[in-house]
Amino acid sequence: MHYSPAPLHIPDGFLTLAVSILCWIFTAITLSVAISRSNKSLGERQVPLMGIMAAFIFAAQMINFPVAGGTSGHLLGGALAAITLGPWAGMLVMTAVIAVQALLFQDGGLLVMGANILNMGLITAVIGYGLYRGVPARNRTLKLAVAGIAAWLSVMAGALFTSLQLWLSGTSQLQVVIPAMLGVHALIGVGEALITVAALTFILQTRPDLLGENSASAKGSRGWVVAGGLISLAVVLLSPFASTDPDGLERVAGDLGFLNKGVSAPYQFMPDYVLPVLTQGYIATVLAGLIGLVVVGAIIVLLGKGLRAKS
Amino acid sequence: MHFDAFDRYHETDSFIHRLDPRVKVVVTVAFILSNALLPDGAWIASGLAWLVLLFANISSRLGITFTLKRSFVALPFALVAITVLFSVTGEPLASLRFLIWDLTITDVGILRFVSILIRSWLSVQMAILLVATARFPDIIHALEHLRVPSILTTIIAFLYRYLFVLGDEVFRLMRARESRSAALAVSGTRSGRSAVWQAKVAGHMAGQLFLRSYERSDRVYNAMLARGYAGHLETINPHELRRRDYVTVALALLAMLFLQLVGRL
Fold it and tell me: Which CATH architecture group holds A17-310?
């Protein structure tokens, strides 16, 4: 069976335990919300639908098309899944796809699966769905153009997050990994955008009801638009900054406590510690991450409440 | 396409094959966790971990080099770790110039690079052994027992169950594309058109596949209702933990603990 590994799937061993666990916590929290939302809003009928849609994403990744230099591009599908199925269902579908890729094909590790789901399933869904829902449905051309931009950005966001996780793990150097990953994925993202737009055009022409205002994908609140917009903005602002001034990003990370000894921190857990998990650097990383999580979560909850009160 | 076209299971009768799938999942994750916890440059502990792996290979009766032969899937990813060779700390060993960067290879960088590769290489082999000795539906069932939310395991089970059906669908679409001279461009010939046009064709195929899958899911659901589907999947394989399962888990965890001690002393 032909199966080509994608460059965003991090294998086991490339992330430190602290980074893996942090990503797992974030992923688990988001997924538990997705599951409780899905259980509430979906009938028994929707679970087989989501399973077959997961198989669809998996199969759609096999459709390749030639790009320059003998390489071929194919779909990643995070944005497409979220736009067609709705954000929560899209996240669950992508999680299943990534889990099977890791378990069955060893494309992506098991311990680092939390990071892979975060990069390819959760962020892509928020950006894809948030931006797509942000434009009014009347203007179809605009809507499709935004879907394309969202698909491109979702790939870039995945690449950016992967690079940052590798850097925080001390596996890659920031000044090399960021330009390399973002450069490669700027091209892959164009393919993703073209396929996503063409697929949506086709669906809109043949079964417009599936993407209409009464479909499952239309039942999102304005919170998604805000979240998608904010994350996209963060990616857009952070990517050029990280590419042109990696030292600046390192300094910011140092100030925030992610890297308490500059770039040398991740390299210094040599055997003279008894339990490196408990050394200051790890605790600082995890704590800083957790505080960040709480702050982001609080902002999202407050925004959601504010928007609900208004509407 | 046969339903098990994607399966990585190798049918034999061995001690590992007979273990409960939960045990295999837990031991695999523990092994990967243990590798992640080993400090850089813990060569003896890594060597012992490799011996554990070889022992598992032998007791699975798949041959001592079984996982080795399949273990190079994660290798392309090593590219991103190459940059760690040029770590800022440590003694410089050699320097070279690549495009715009002046790069200096250091001893700490090499130590870390090799450690990452070994960690990754050992971990991926245990994961390969897991799917070679446990049927995938059994692994899904084990995940359910290990408290993975049932909506996720059900989606994964459906994904696995229908992947080969949609795989056939993809091959039909690709055959149709080739027969209508939209084949992938071969250098030197005039087959195909621009990359943008190719991407558009691929996108239309993805859209077509989406609609076929969507409509198929309705038929699947109705067929399942007719066969008594009540919201969750049943299995005929009894999963019960026996004494050898408990003993294996205990021994495996002790071995990991020993590896950690060796790696840190």
Answer: Orthogonal Bundle (1.10)
